[in-house]
Design a protein that fits this description.
binds flavin-adenine dinucleotide; Uridine Diphospho-n-acetylenolpyruvylglucosamine Reductase, domain 2; 4-stranded mixed beta sheet; globular; 9 helices; 312 residues; 26% strand; Uridine Diphospho-n-acetylenolpyruvylglucosamine Reductase, domain 1; alpha+beta; 17 strands; Uridine Diphospho-n-acetylenolpyruvylglucosamine Reductase, domain 3; 6-stranded antiparallel beta sheet
Length: 312
């Protein structure tokens, strides 16, 4: 069946009135893993209105819809993604502006967390410099309360603007979003049918030289600890007693391969696409790691990466 026959009449026309649409777009081009099949219909939203309206159009036509930002925390199945896939390329940034004793910045959900963290640190605003190595968008960061080095988005988040199924916009606090370690009310399914449009972050004045030095230090730490190449960052969330890499390492899987996917030699909670890996190879490594760690330690590793679309 071709994608066109799966999409209801009038849907593509409605979408094309919002932004250009591509059919059968390979999603391996758009994710940091570089694996997985095509999207039936694909649209890149450059503005918050395009994001909101494309999402509402899919909902109105009963078409499944998947939204992604930088694709740095997803594994797309080899069978691809049915319905509409929206890439969030929104990039508006307002501020920082004085807000009480501190400062506020409003950034569209498509803005890169790392790029914003670097820009603000360079300009002498403190609060999110720890995020200088998180390659995802702010929308993706809301979903999993992205964090590093003991800090997370919830520490600096004031409010989030969300769009619902009919395009209506609401504002929520971090408490309403129920942000916890690598999860939120959105990932738990407690809030359904919502797209993150923008976030308001709380900042303070800092010393630009000290902030730049901190960013350099964190860059060096990441470079020393994490492998280069195509990956999704941490594959599993860290259980309470030991980090996930320790369990995978103890299970003897450091460097283990399936097809062109490999558990990193450098960091055993990373899986690398060595070139042309299938999503099925990556899943096989994840399942092997979970099974071995379960048998050996009785610990259930929970994926941090989100599996999207059709797998074998
Ligand atoms: C090298 C590397 C290092 C990493 N380091 C860290 C780290 O230190 N800490 C950390 O927390 N993470 C880290 N990550 C993981 C990743 O960068 C974060 O999870 C990031 O927040 C994901 O953002 P994204 O835009 O890439 O999300 P995507 O992968 O595009 O999407 C992830 C999920 O969020 C949903 N989503 C995305 N945008 C929206 C939106 N606007 N509205 C509604 N739903 C949305 C998607 O549907 C999907 O379910 C790392 C990844 C890599 C590749």
């Amino acid at each position: 069946m071709t994608p066109r026959t799966r999409l209801p009449a009038g849907f593509l026309g409605a979408l094309r009135a919002i932004a250009p649409v591509r059919l059968d777009e390979p999603l391996s081009r758009h994710t940091t893993f570089g694996a997985g099949g095509p999207a039936d219909a694909y649209l890149a939203a450059e503005t918050e209105d395009q994001l909101r309206l494309a999402y509402a159009a899919a909902k109105r036509h009963g078409v499944p819809v998947f939204i992604f930002g930088s694709g740095s925390n997803v594994l797309v199945g080899d069978g691809g993604v049915r319905g509409l896939t929206i890439e969030n390329r929104t990039g508006r940034i307002e501020g920082p502006s004085q807000n009480g004793a501190g400062f506020k910045v409003r950034a569209a959900s498509g803005v890169s967390f790392a790029a914003l963290a670097r820009r603000l640190a360079n300009a002498g605003y403190a609060g999110i410099e720890w995020a200088c190595g998180i390659p995802g968008s702010l929308g993706g960061a809301v979903l999993t309360n992205a964090g590093a080095y003991g800090s997370s988005l919830s520490d600096v988040l004031k409010t989030v603007r969300l769009a619902g199924a009919t395009g209506e916009v609401t504002e929520m606090t971090p408490e309403q979003l129920g942000l916890r370690y690598r999860e939120s009310a959105l990932t738990r399914g407690e809030i359904a049918d919502a797209v993150v449009l923008s976030v308001d972050l709380r900042l303070q004045r800092g010393d630009p030289q000290a902030l730049k030095a901190r960013v350099r230090e964190l860059d060096a730490q990441r470079k020393a600890a994490q492998p280069p190449g195509r990956n999704c960052g941490s594959v599993f969330k860290n259980p309470p007693d030991h980090p996930s890499w320790w369990y995978v390492d103890q299970a003897g899987l450091r460097g283990h391969r399936s097809g062109n996917a490999q558990i990193s030699e450098k960091h055993a909670n990373f899986i690398l696409n060595l070139g042309g890996a299938r999503a099925a190879d990556i899943v096989a490594l994840m399942e092997l790691a979970r099974a071995r760690v379960r048998e050996q330690f009785g610990v259930e590793l929970q994926p941090e990466v989100m599996l999207v679309g059709e797998f074998e």
